[in-house]
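Render this sequence as a predicted structure.
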Amino acid sequence: MSTEKDMYNYIEETLKPMAQEDCTKMYADWSDKYEEDMPGCSYNAPKGTADRFAELNLPKDSKILDCGAGTGLLGQALSDLGYTNIEALDGCEKMLEKAKLKNIYKNVTISYVGPEIELPIEAETFDALIMVGVFCPGHFPMDIGTYKQFLKLLKKGGIISWGMANPDRYAERDSTYADKGFDKIIEGLVSEGLVEIVDDHPKNLPDYLKGEDGFFWALRKL
């Protein structure tokens, strides 16, 4: 991308409803330049998400799954903080090829994510799931079932956490975010007795993207 403005406009254009296959192609085509392009748009979300995750004070050898790992920006930030037992999940093989080069993941799994997709990972094996930039239009399906599939991978008492932009900014472009759709999903998980919200969450995530703050969420599996 030639300028910071061009990069920001491109990202905004990608944040729209699309089929997972189209999203995968977009990232496959972008994989060679992704890490070169993103800093030009002040994308501080991976480091900020890792820093907030560290505040949960989980042991550094906790088994962590980086969901929607992409090229490994979040995994690298976790590794820099001393976490040593990280695996990766993503639907785009070309992005994961870049992530593998960082030598921070003990295993990588290629899979789409969604409410009807049984993830090809052994159940109840992770202490924590973490993700960033995946709950937005065209990316992980915004559905309570998506969260339920993730929860299958967690041990009882495990943490599912993520960094995201303010979901209200997507309400006009994606109906699943309208009328506080994201909040209703979290409320549904809590009301079904599947999770509890970790104290003081969500927390502010400063300068998530292009100077806009986001949120860091942490839920505990019951």
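Summary. The first strand starts at residue 64 and ends at 67. The radius of gyration is 16 Å.
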